């Protein structure tokens, strides 16, 4: 065959794969749409506001102001929805670059909040979660970010503020695990503060109220997924302004630029619930640690659940260039649809295991991310599951 013929054949293969992916994504989209419609109907019921015999209903809302062009209009919208649910007063606090929500959450708790609601994207949710860990105070979520990953995994209303407010103030709730990750052998330090340090600083002013256990000062919180390699490089490459304009597609564009990232030569150690450790050397494009596994339009870790006390460790690798990436994409889509996937030679590979704790060391520094926030580059990370650390408002269960 001539070079032109080879190119034409390759283009035809890519086109067929693209059609399959689009059809699978559409199927997944309509499945999620039906699920959210059911959640929406549940949320329309007037909820019972969480209350304490001494505190009464005192909801605090921690808001990321950068998510809104008109902050006052957003507050008015939320207050109207809360009033419809029988809550006439809300206490507001805003996040800052120096503290994205952890210290504010702790201040709300010690001030007597009956429920602390994170109104923002994934970064705000994980920061607030770090401050809420083991306090026993309810946490709510009003998802107003790009990914809204924890909200999706919990089946909370997306793009429906009134319903989200009602759920956040509602009586139904569930315990959720929280992930903590520390970074060692740092090459480029994070521009974001570690939530562990923020929590320790805030609780230092209220030692008698501090819960146990507390995080270490070098630990970052995550509620959905953390990782190193391709996923970290994608987050580094994501344009925040573009994300505001086109949403989730900004991650796709960034991912394309990270396709050629070097493979990790990695040593992975996992520890199970019995304290038994397993060490394995591997080569992978990305190694991730999932508390839950649903992303927009696909499921990355189908067995991951938010309350099983375990993280799902996911190693992904590709061979044969773009064909390998296309095959990997098909595998991820298939598993989200409940279809079997095979790891064939010279294509894409995805492997899973479960652990309570894990440590990862790579041959050269790579980008690290927690819930989509890039936290620098390093050669080593440690992560653990903090079992049942959060009590989060959910739709009717």
TrEMBL record:
<keyword id="KW-0418">Kinase</keyword>
<comment type="similarity">
    <text>Belongs to the diacylglycerol/lipid kinase family.</text>
</comment>
<keyword id="KW-1133">Transmembrane helix</keyword>
<dbReference type="Pfam" id="PF00781">
    <property type="entry name" value="DAGK_cat"/>
</dbReference>
<keyword id="KW-0812">Transmembrane</keyword>
<protein>
    <submittedName>
        <fullName>Diacylglycerol kinase</fullName>
    </submittedName>
</protein>
<dbReference type="InterPro" id="IPR017438">
    <property type="entry name" value="ATP-NAD_kinase_N"/>
</dbReference>
<dbReference type="InterPro" id="IPR016064">
    <property type="entry name" value="NAD/diacylglycerol_kinase_sf"/>
</dbReference>
<dbReference type="GO" id="GO:0016301">
    <property type="term" value="F:kinase activity"/>
</dbReference>
<dbReference type="InterPro" id="IPR050187">
    <property type="entry name" value="Lipid_Phosphate_FormReg"/>
</dbReference>
<feature type="transmembrane region" description="Helical">
    <location>
        <begin position="6"/>
        <end position="26"/>
    </location>
</feature>
<keyword id="KW-0472">Membrane</keyword>
<dbReference type="InterPro" id="IPR001206">
    <property type="entry name" value="Diacylglycerol_kinase_cat_dom"/>
</dbReference>
<feature type="domain" description="DAGKc">
    <location>
        <begin position="54"/>
        <end position="185"/>
    </location>
</feature>
<keyword id="KW-0808">Transferase</keyword>
